[in-house]
Write a structure and sequence with these properties.
The chain is 7% helix and 22% strand. It has 69 residues and is mainly beta. The mean pLDDT is 85.
Amino acid sequence: MSHGCFNRAPFVAGTEVQDGYYASGPRRKVVVPFRMATDCQFTHTELGQADKRCIGCKHRSTKPTGETK
């Protein structure tokens, strides 16, 4: 069995949330953009580089351990 994140669907670009009410009564909505990293952060660690269950995942990082950019 693989990890639950293995080849998961991509994250949405943003989410619509309520931001109070208009004076006339309806809800005010705003879009909150997704600001987290889209690539796998686990594979930036030594454990992630050694985890065999991550091999073949499309989100696996190919950067060496300790390199964040």
